[in-house]
Amino acid sequence: MAVKIPQYTQQTNTPTALLQIASNPNANPVNVSDGLGRGLQQLGRGLGDASDALIYKDNADGVSRAGKNAADADMHWIDYLEKAKSEAKDGAPNFTGDMMEKFKKYKEETLAAEPNTKGRALLDQKLTSLQLNLFSNSKQFEAQAGRRGDAGDALRGVQLLGQRQDVALALELPAAGVGEFG
């Protein structure tokens, strides 16, 4: 029994360039796609290298700028802390809280102004370290100022007691009374 093979009917159009080559046996086809492909590949590689170089430079600039901004912040806030200490009220009430509030605002503004992600991350790290240092120094100053204030209050109290004879006399213990409790 013989099997009949069905005839294939083409369902897509053949490009006219191939039809011309097929109809002209003397035509010499030129393979331009290989050279063009290599050229486009080299162009893409070159653009990728240029892009990488720009990203590297941007990151390097960001890190450099962050280092400079961190150094400037160190100098500014050390000077600011010393000035604030010299101008602090007696007992330095809320000295640390005020200092940290001002620094927090400064830090937010400074980080927002840094356009480079790597630079911002480095600057954030440096400013956080500075913030911890300022907090420690502020807290220490506030505690010392509070103790000085307490000692000053005690000294003023003793001086006031010495000026009032009636209070000073009441504080003296009678010599006979001491022996009676023993």
What would you say this structure looks like, in words?
The chain has about 180 residues and is mainly α. Helix content is about 80%, strand content about 0%. It is built from 6 helices and no strands. The radius of gyration is 43 Å and the shape is elongated. The relative contact order is 0.08. About 5% of the residues have low confidence.
Summarize the structure.
This protein has 182 residues and is an all-alpha fold. It has helices spanning 16-23, 32-87, 95-113, 117-163, 165-171, 175-180.
Which characteristics define this entry?
single chain; mainly alpha; 182 residues
Rg measurement, Å = 43 Å
Poorly predicted sequence stretches spanning 5 or more consecutive residues: 164-173
Sheet with the most strands, sense and barrel status: none
Query: How many beta-strand elements?
Result: 0
Count of discrete alpha- or pi-helical segments spanning 4 or more residues: 6
Globally, the shape reads elongated
Distance between the termini: 140 Å
State which percent range the strand residues make up.
under 5%
Proportion of residues in helical segments: over 70%
- The helix/strand class is mainly alpha
SSE order in H/E notation?
HHHHHH
